Amino acid sequence: MTQHDESAPTSASSAAASVPAWESRTETQITLRSPAELADALPYLMGFHPTDSVIMLALHGERGRFGGRLRLGIPDNAEEWSDVSDQLAETLVAGCGKRGPRPDGIVLFLCQDPAKGETARQVMERLRPLAQSLRLACGGLDVPVYEALCISDGRFWSYCCPDERCCPREGTPLALPGTSVMAAAAAYAGIQVRGTLREMEARYAPLTGRRADEQESALDAAAADLVPRILRGTDCETVRQETLDLARLVVERFHEARPAARPEADARDDSLLAADEAAAIILGLQDRTTRDRAAEWMEGPQAPAALRVWRALARRCVGPYIEHAAAPLTLAGWVAWSTGEHPEARVALSRALSADPEYLFAQLLHRACNEGMDPELLRRCLRRERTGRVVDHERAETGTDRPEALHATAPLGAPGERNPLEEPEEKSSRETAEAQQSREALKTVDAQSATPAPAPATGARRHATTGASGAGGPGGTGGPGATSRRGGPSGGNGPAGKARTRRRTGRGVRGRQ
Fold this sequence. Notes:
Layout: E1 2-3, E2 17-20, E3 29-32, H1 35-46, E4 53-60, E5 65-73, H2 81-99, E6 105-111, H3 120-140, E7 145-152, E8 155-158, E9 172-173, H4 181-189, H5 197-202, H6 209-232, H7 236-256, H8 265-271, H9 275-284, H10 288-294, H11 303-315, H12 326-338, H13 342-355, H14 360-370, H15 376-398, H16 429-449, E10 463-466, E11 500-501, E12 511-512
Parallel strand pairs: 1-10, 6-7
Antiparallel strand pairs: 2-3, 4-5, 4-6, 5-10, 7-8, 8-9, 11-12
Helix pairs in contact: 1-4, 2-3, 6-9, 7-9, 7-10, 7-11, 11-12, 12-13, 12-14, 13-14, 15-16
């Protein structure tokens, strides 16, 4: 099991939980006073309806302010529960301690719907040993579990409350959607619940059936054409430009197409992308420099279209090309994070790490997003990279170093975005300090990513997600963000750090990125 951090700072205690409004939109605080209110608040605290999940929320202070949080898929093998419980408790407590005070308590949720032929009450009883194991693990660290809830099939049970007057044996129905105090507060703050976790993950699932077969054939044909050109090394820049030009054309197409309503949106987007186009872009994005330049399409009116394109490309990574999805999934996670879609960013980056656990760019972004870092610092770095590339390009064409010769230059980055050269050349002392902060942030994140979190004895591939303590809510911002450096197979560095050779699978060509 691989551990990765995820944060969305928020704040509650089982008796009286205090939740500040997200993104500093208001100083109003919400107080959760019962297990029912805690259960109803969970989707708004996470940004989605969790499924098949263990969720742990840290509590701080006398008012029980929400701090760090952690989510992990429930292990299928009950024999793993004890070891997993120890690791989850240690991860949450240690993570909170690194960013501030240790938690004073924990609220625990076990979310799982019944299997075929199983009742919700049977789910609750089946998961009771897991709840007890987690309570013992937290207690062993001197952090009590104030409340432990099982949520299944629209009902909840408390593992801590023996009073059947408030927690009956048959469970308590959840409040109707949109009727709880948290629903009202979320609507006021502009917070949306984006369906279930399973539904969010399904948007990135590979195609199946006949379309998957067609896409695999297109990927085979594209690999036969592109891989020899990439491996020769002499044609890399041409392949990069061809990939970016094609990707830019597809982004423009998605931008011009009228967005469809869900759940038809993804099917509509799939119809806008031909199999051969998808294959060429997917293989081209395996080059780190190409991917880094595509990452510059992270803002502006066409960023939503770019996110849709990266989603569609992730769905086209089928058969033996599933690992190739790490690149478009990471780009989707980056654009989602950059545009404020934090729950989707975490889903996309988690899936990128499932496709390739050692994909360094995804590791850096996942850590930065989950620790509440500000994406603006990385955006600034990517803008500087684009500006420097434009300047170099114009100097090569004009044969002059005069700044006035560059005033008409259009950027080579995202379609439709403003010219970054319009920014003044003279940087203020504040801007200089911010640039230094950005460089130091990269050093910090690189150093943290060099030591992966310990894995438990289980052989299952899971991603535990933890959150930083502090005020705010899902999607809150925090300390310094990651920055990037240019590079690619030719020997430079990129946001992911140094490239490492990856084993050949017989189809396509990939490297550690």
